[in-house]
Amino acid sequence: MKQQKKFQSDQQQEHAAEHHTEQKAGKEFGSVDELLRFDAAQTAPPAAIAERLQKSSAQIPKPSSPSWWQRFFK
After folding, report:
1. Side-chain-side CA neighbours of residue 1 (13 Å)
2. What is the Cα–Cα distance from 3 to 21, expressed in whole angstroms?
3. 50-68 b/e with 16+ CB inside 10 Å = b?
4. Helix (H, G, I), strand (E, B), or coil: what is residue 18?
5. d(Cα 49, Cα 55) in Å, to the nearest integer?
6. pLDDT of 12-53, one tens digit each?
7. DSSP per residue over 2-30, as a string?
8. Is there a contact between 14 and 8 (Cβ–Cβ < 8 Å)?
9. pTM (2 decimals)?
């Protein structure tokens, strides 16, 4: 009786694992950019790298607003 239960639970685990891999393999992307955006949304950077990125992006100067004649001719 125990062997039968173990056999059934093994089958259920195999089925769940197959179903899980099928879901991941089914995603298609139209371009490489879409793939990279999807991957970036799923993967969080390590805390040290995220902190360094925030510090370096804070040092980038803000773009100045265009002068009146540049706005006029746009």
Report:
1. 0
2. 27
3. eeeeeeeeeeeeeeeeeee
4. helix
5. 10
6. 666 665 655 555 567 899 999 999 999 989 999 899 999 999
7. HHHHHHHHHHHHHHHHHHHHHHHHT---S
8. no
9. 0.37
